[in-house]
Amino acid sequence: MAREEIKAELARVAVSLGAPAGVVVELETPREKSHGDVATNLALVLAKTLGAKPREVAGRIVAALSFPPGIVASVEIAGPGFINFRLATDQLTGILHTIIAAGPGYGRAPATGGAPVNVEFVSANPTGPLHVGHGRQAALGDAIASLLEWTGRKVTREFYYNDAGAQIMKLAASVQARVAQLRGREAELPEGGYHGEYIRELAERYAEAHPADRDAADLEQVRRFAVEALRQEQDRDLQAFGVRFDVYFLESSLYADGRVAETVGRWAAAGHTYERDGALWLRTTDFGDDKDRVIRRSPEKGGEYTYFVPDVAYHVGKWRRGFTRAINVQGSDHHSTVTRVRIGLQALDLGIPPGYPEYVLHQMVTVMKGGEEVRISKRAGSYVTVQDLVEEVGRDAVRYFFLMRKADSHLQFDIDLALKRSEENPVFYVQMAHARMSGVFRVGSVDASAVTAEGVDIAVLTDPSEAELLKVLARFPESVERAAEALDPQRITNYLEELARAAHLWYHRCRVLGESPPVERARLAVARATQIVLANALTLLGLSAPERM
RNA sequence: GCGCCAGUAGCUCAGCUGGAUAGAGCGUCAGCCUCCGGAGCUGAAGGCCACAGGUUCGACUCCUGUCUGGCGCACCA
Prior knowledge:
Helix 4 packs across helix 17 and helix 16 crosses helix 19 (about 490-510). Strand 5, helix 5 (about 130-150) and strand 6 (about 155-160) form a beta-alpha-beta unit. This protein has helices at about 1-15, 40-50, 55-65, 90-100, 130-150, 165-180, 195-210, 220-240, 250-255, 260-270, 310-320, 335-345, 385-395, 395-405, 415-420, 425-445, 465-475, 475-485, 490-510, 515-540; strands spanning about 25-30, 40, 70-80, 80-85, 115-120, 155-160, 245-250, 275, 280, 295, 325-330, 360, 365-370, 370-375, 410-415. Among the domains are: about 1-90, Gyrase A, domain 2 (2-Layer Sandwich), CATH 3.30.1360.70; about 420-540, Orthogonal Bundle (Isoleucyl-tRNA Synthetase, Domain 1), CATH 1.10.730. The chain is α/β, with parallel strands linked by helices and about 550 residues long. The chain binds one RNA strand of 77 nucleotides through helix 2, helix 6, strand 9, strand 10 and helix 12.
């Protein structure tokens, strides 16, 4: 691609002019069209080290540049010292060839062969239906995993959950109380218990499945039953959402195979623990925490390990399984765990890097309908579930809406907008662009997969919207790369909207079918390339690319 | 009180890791149009980038402080 060649040539010239070897050349796409197709700030960056004015440096660089024919049409120096390149028209033909030849692989980098990356997300405990926050995580985590795959990494999607612990016991006790109420006895939900309608459902099902245990006296059996049922329900919801996991990791296994004890033992051996008030503490302040943390409660409080110990043990396990990168997608309400887990790992002295694991924290989701906030669902009671949203607006809209804002931003989920079948709705707008391209082939009875760029003369494409569209198409691989680097799928939804805009504009201005043969052939190739890139971007985000709407 | 995140057009949000005259959609206003799907197209108005300093050739972007909002600061998870 032209960009790569320009980058390489700039690097070569920079070094020949005295820049340090390995200088990083940044290319950007100017938003102002009169500034050309590609621009670099290289001269401004080098001005200081070369001890010359930016425009003078730019002059030297331009004078030394040398490209084979067919790549760059013109080079100019502008503003404070930018170097602007205009690409040769041959490059546009090249774009069509590249895209159509690569097809579903366009934008996908070859496997790097590096160590696998672990992406952990959702990780909901089986205490109730998945809520909208889990939905945002599911969409984000799955898309981030895909982005990493598209940039050549091997990825494991992982779901971690606690199947024991205090919360689960409250769940079991809540179900037990509801069973008792079914039998017409007075029974109160435990303090901090679960109130949702689904608890009543579980109680009914338990009573039916275990007629012998009339009073649900066997709490362990109730626990197993409830956990099993809720896990199944979560799986079903995730499946309906189109998210699949490679590994489901049980917190209880960390106790069973001794890893929790091992972790505590290592801390103690390294001299980072001490006893106080009957509890065992980890001196996390030695690693920058603002206070030390309890790792084993005092006997009066039950003498159990606090949750953060298995959390650390779990991440040691990720490291040992060969994941040199681990990315955790969580709600920002869990941000206090970030430093603690990292510190816990540091205190083990296992050579794990300080920034391990990486976190993508997302802000809260507010569901809006009819201009008002929706807070509750029938089944869960106190919160809106993923299932509610998927049933109401469909899986594609839910996924798209969860991805179209950066994770850092609070997200307003507008149900009315998600339901609109018009261009105001970004999902509709983007998918419609794909349907339109498909429509051209359908109406023209053309086999889209047989369209090639062979023999296409790009010179017949005279409308400005055509070159514009091709340039947007050419940027897709770079967009994927940047989004992956930033762990930010929102950049892809942005790209999609930009591409859809260019595609709609082109479609509106340029007829394909029934034009003169050279024009029709060229435009079929444009439509095909556009269809491919739209489909690839949609697929990458876990969205469907409909042929018609 | 401390920590994390956010604050950009009336609304919802971008802004490519410090670049050129801050963009898009919706809404508003003014036009065009009936074609491979009009669920369209063109144009206009609309901004103290929360505020105040600083860093440098250059700041919406980085640093410091202030204000506002969200989240978190357990021997809960």
